[in-house]
Amino acid sequence: MREYRIAAIPGDGIGIEVIAAGLKVLDALAARDRGFRLAVEQFPWGSDYYLEHGHYIPEGGLERLKQFDAIFFGAVGAPNVPDHISLWGLRLPICQGFDQYANVRPARVLPGITSPLANGNAIDWVIIRENSEGEYSGSGGRAHRGLPEEVATETSVFTRTGVTRIHRYAFELARGRPRKHLTLVTKSNAQRHGMVMWDEIFYEVARDYPDVTTQRVLVDAVTTQMVAKPGRLDTIVATNLHADILSDLAAALSGSLGIAPTANLNPERRFPSMFEPIHGSAFDITGKGVANPIGTFWTAAMMLEHLGEKEAAQRLMGAIETVTGKRIHTPDLGGEATTEIVTQAVCDSL
Ligand code: IPM
Ligand code: MG
Q1: CA of 276, closest atom in ligand 1
Q2: What is the pLDDT of residues 237-289, one digit of tens each?
Q3: What CATH number is given for 115-254 in this structure?
Q4: pTM attached to this predicted model
Q5: What is the mean pLDDT of the chain?
Q6: Cβ 257 vs Cβ 251: under 8 Å
Q7: Which of 212, 209, 219, 185 is nearest to 199 (CA)?
Q8: Angle, to 10 degrees, between the axis of helix 310-325 and the axis of helix 14-33?
């Protein structure tokens, strides 16, 4: 029997609820499949843990995580901890420490879900987000705090290595999809250094992929394409911040932020990759039992695919689509089902 070691980090807010639901579904899947087993260890590294201990990740924590095959992550962020502290305390040290430079965000309108777009069924996108540098490099500083002369800089960092590898990853992924079409998102008209290099390297890498068609679109213009001509887009590569924004738009256009999954990948597999729903901790609905677990289930399917369990991943996607198709929906999708009802329905369908 194939066994995979999974580190579960539920984190904060509804992260705790959806990861519990996700583990339940994964258990049902493994019991049904009998070909593989998941050995799950839970890590309590959320904001409560931070307030008690003064850190999210304890000494040696990343070393411990290295021994796992994958990380199943809920969300981080709490009302009583500044967001930049929680983010830089937990999620970014894992993404950056494990060189998870490729963030993959598929978007599609699942059966039984209504897109706010009339032509929403044309949405079938994969957004590839550069996940290790760019606008999230953490480079910059503040001086003369509180004085009228106060100054702050937030520097985007683009390296040839970082840009080349994300474009190459995007071309590979685009090549594996039926349309073989890759959109380069940029802002090189206004940002004349990093973004110009971003474009140049894209076209250097493109020479190795003559079978992939490309288009270059400015980030502001691509938002209108997503809304007005969703079928024109397929695979999309964008910088850390641009893709952050575009993926929220993509999720909303596919029906709800509650269904959107993501994978933070270290494609070379030197380190474990991390899988999480994109919605965040959502304290406004925490504890009410109505968090949409679909984003986490889809995330779990991406994790299984990464682990090489393609059949199980497909079976899980099938069960998810059966349940959304029956309109067993949580309130974010206009339904009245609870997290538990949706979870049970997916388990039953499996
Ligand atoms: C995401 C989230 C995070 C990000 C937040 C929580 C900082 O919005 O994964 O898209 O911007 O990376
Ligand atoms: Mg985001």
Answers
A1: 9
A2: 999 999 999 999 999 999 999 999 999 999 999 999 999 999 999 999 999 99
A3: 3.40.718.10
A4: 0.95
A5: 97
A6: yes
A7: 185
A8: 120
pLDDT in tens, 215-228: 999 999 999 999 99
Residue 200 scores a pLDDT above 90: yes
Tokens of 7: 């580190």
Q: How far apart are CA 83 and CA 202, in angstroms?
A: 33
Region 119-132: mean pLDDT is 96
- What's 275-340 look like in SS3? EEECCCCCCCCCCCCCCCCHHHHHHHHHHHHHHCCHHHHHHHHHHHHHHHHCCCCCHHHCCCCCHH
Domain ranges of the chain: 1-100+262-350, 115-254
Ligand 1 atom nearest residue 244's Cα: 10
**Strand pairing class (181-186; 235-238):** parallel
- CATH no. of 1-100+262-350: 3.40.718.10
Name the residue of 14, 91, 128, 276 to mutate for ligand 1: max ligand atoms within 8 A of Cβ.
91
Are 1-100+262-350 and 115-254 the same fold in CATH? yes
